Description:
The radius of gyration is 20 Å and the shape is globular. The protein starts with a strand and ends in a 5-residue tail after the last helix. It has helices at 39-49, 98-103, 111-115, 121-124, 129-134, 142-149, 165-168, 243-249, 259-266, 280-302; strands spanning 3-6, 19-21, 27-35, 53-56, 68-74, 83-86, 89-93, 152-156, 161-164, 182-189, 195-202, 212-221, 224-233, 240-241. Helices cover 27% and strands 27% of the residues. It folds into three domains: 3-74; 83-189, Uridine Diphospho-n-acetylenolpyruvylglucosamine Reductase, domain 3, CATH 3.30.465; 195-302, Enolase-like, domain 1 (2-Layer Sandwich). It is built from ten helices and 14 strands. The protein is of the alpha+beta class. The strands form three sheets. Strands 1, 2, 3, 4 and 5 form a five-stranded mixed beta sheet that branches. The protein has a five-stranded antiparallel beta sheet with strand order 6-7-10-8-9.
Amino acid sequence: MPTVFPMRCCQPPKRNWACLTVSQGAIMNVREFVIPGSLREARMVLKKLGEKGMAVAGATALHFYGSMEKTAVDITRLGLSGIKKKGGFFEIGATTTLAGLMKYKGAGWVLNRVAGRVSTQQVRNISTVGGNIVRVFPWADLPVALLALDASFLVEGNKPWTIDADGFFKTQPANLFKTGDLLTKITAPALKKGQGFGYRKENRVNAAFSMMTAAAVVTVKGGKIRAVRLAAGAGIPFPRRLTNVEAALIGQPADIGEVGAAVAEGIRGISWKGKEGMSDEYAAQLARVTVADVLIEALQQAKGEGV
């Protein structure tokens, strides 16, 4: 049986960790806190609760959800944390913390570079990979990198099912889940010889939300660009691949001089949105620079020039 802790609704001026006030004054009211002992039990509880239940791990984003009454189902004790390399891929448990991504070391591992730019160390110590990608906010960092890496995602449902990054981030990922489904594992490829990874996050101060994020994986062989996966976020409402830029670069010489024109033409027509005082025109220019930077970084690494 799961352990259930009833929570009292918080009433000002008393403080209760389970009730988080958002900027609009709405309150996230966690009525009960359930600790299941197994993945099967967690799924059963969530199915029984329906819309009243919410799977939580780090719980760092609850204050963005507005005024809701929920029963929190803690999934941190289900054995879903940790990273291991299997063949040419890294398998990442969904409740692995961002600090865990930072600390892990392995040939071809790049997500430490992404995790290290997310918020503060205090947040990274408890915020999880799954929580950062199941419900995607406009400023989210990991979705952009996982799109570029062509990651895949294992979901435990009535039957386990796997989906690639393009499918997972085609819409808000939570919309793909049926009641009781839980993301359990993310699989990301290890970079090989001839491949490079570029990543940039532009923000005004170190712990702030991103104003523009971009990531790229480039494969070079025989002096030419053989494959490109390029993604951007924050300056657009939802993370996406920049397929026009990818297509313009594939088959071209692996020369950084090719990048600028491909980017300028490839992102034409995308509605970049300014924030934090930026105009839309400034956001478009920031996108051109940031996207070009990640491609140059990836190209240099793929050619063995180092980053």
